[in-house]
Amino acid sequence: MTVSSAPDPMLPEPLRIARAKRETHGVFTFELDVSARGGFPFLPGQFNMLYPFGAGESAISISSDPHQPDRLEHTIRAVGAVTRAIERLGRGDVVGVRGPFGSAWPIREAEGRDLVVIAGGIGLAPLRPVVYHALRRREAFGKVALLYGTRTPDDILYRKEIERWRGRLDVEVEVTVDTAGSDWRGNTGVVTKLISRAAFDPGRAFAMICGPEIMMRFCARELERLGVSLDRIWITMERNMRCGTGLCGHCQFGPSFVCKDGPVYRYDRVQDLLLVREV
Amino acid sequence: MEQESLARSIAQHPLVAGMSDEHVDFLSGCVRNARLDEGQFLFREGQRADELYLIRSGKLALEIHDGARGTIVAETVGGGDALGWSTLFPPYRWELDARGVHFAHLFAIDGACLRAKLEADHDFGYAFTRRLLNEVHSRLQRARLQALDVYRARP
């Protein structure tokens, strides 16, 4: 994989929506047509600034397969003015794109080790490229586990894909929901419960976590309790990203800028900052 | 002979693993094997809580019934979990329902027998209670995170 950005990182590139798919209530996936530009190489964990014209920009993680740069996907939750404006777009509409920006999940560093991917809610989207990569290069890793927690059974993202992954014998996939009715036959409870039950060796595991900050803190503590070294735990941060290049300062996180130095961070380098209320 | 075999089996359960042979033997006198079919209730809210369960395999749903919202699954538990702290504290009544989701094998520890042994041998009592406290601590942490409803959409 190689990565190249648009010549001017501040200039949005118009890309047409090739496919639109409703994932769950309020969450949808757009595939953008990148054929005219010869694909859109990126690294797992990177994000783009998406610009529905006239409505502002929003930082959205890339959720497609990094080994298939001819397909560029973003899974978006409509929660604010910009993402709601994106939601109103459909197949054939054009959106402005700047990127890819930011740091990547350390997938090469994780090779040769057990890989534990822990996602919460929409946090599965930024980790989906890691799962694609791990499954394509399965022989490069020890045990691979995907542990996914979300709110209710109706909120499970990429449901069919998860079922396919579960069907593989070489990857452990566990899903849990915070709340469910009695007709739900899967796991109920928080995602941290899945960690202690997953089959991996804490002494050689590499963990990548994405979800709400509180959830990531609880997961990191559970991993630490089990014996996973903090320098082998990685998380991804979300802040108010604007320029994508570390110039505007909107996403300052202590001494770093999330858009440029993050969004993927090694946990031991930011764990203290996560507890500073003013940051 | 059967008791020895039971003691060896119990010693594999995470709640008991690492306890001294003497304490495991002592505990095993209160234990019987049990099974729960899918859809069967292990206990119902309000019934007398007279056994503590160590789940060996399978899955159970801990359910709370609310008139307006129907039945809500508070948590599912499975192999390696312990269930039934209500058997240790008065008034010894279950505070929720436990229903089999997948066929389950369990160790059922008689509550009165266990309480008597916890009192009779404080070394055993400390070792067992400490392990149970660790389980309660984990459950409390999970309950806190669950109550925060962290995945709810917030603008």
UniProtKB/TrEMBL annotation, chain A:
The keyword RNA-binding does not apply. Residues 10-107 form the FAD-binding FR-type domain. InterPro entries: Cyt_c3_hydrogenase_gsu (IPR012165), Dihydroorotate_DH_Fe-S-bd (IPR019480), FAD-bd_FR_type (IPR017927), Flavoprot_Pyr_Nucl_cyt_Rdtase (IPR001709), FNR_nucleotide-bd (IPR039261), OxRdtase_FAD/NAD-bd (IPR001433), PyrK_electron_transfer (IPR050353), Riboflavin_synthase-like_b-brl (IPR017938). SUPFAM superfamilies: Ferredoxin reductase-like, C-terminal NADP-linked domain, Riboflavin synthase domain-like. [2Fe-2S] cluster binds at residues 243, 248, 251, 259. One of its GO terms (molecular function) is 2 iron, 2 sulfur cluster binding. It comes from the Bacteria. Binds 1 [2Fe-2S] cluster per subunit. The keyword Cell inner membrane does not apply. Keywords: 2Fe-2S, Iron, Iron-sulfur, Metal-binding. CDD domains: sulfite_reductase_like (cd06221). Its cofactor is [2Fe-2S] cluster. GO terms for biological process: pyrimidine nucleotide biosynthetic process. PANTHER family: ANAEROBIC SULFITE REDUCTASE SUBUNIT B (PTHR43513:SF1), DIHYDROOROTATE DEHYDROGENASE B (NAD(+)), ELECTRON TRANSFER SUBUNIT (PTHR43513). This is Ni/Fe hydrogenase subunit gamma. It comes from Polyangium fumosum. The lineage of its organism: Bacteria, Pseudomonadati, Myxococcota, Polyangia, Polyangiales.
TrEMBL record, chain B:
Gene3D superfamilies: Jelly Rolls (2.60.120.10). InterPro entries: cNMP-bd_dom, cNMP-bd_dom_sf, RmlC-like_jellyroll. It comes from the Bacteria. Residues 15-84 form the Cyclic nucleotide-binding domain. It holds the Pfam family cNMP_binding. This is Cyclic nucleotide-binding domain-containing protein. It comes from Polyangium fumosum. The lineage of its organism: Bacteria, Pseudomonadati, Myxococcota, Polyangia, Polyangiales.
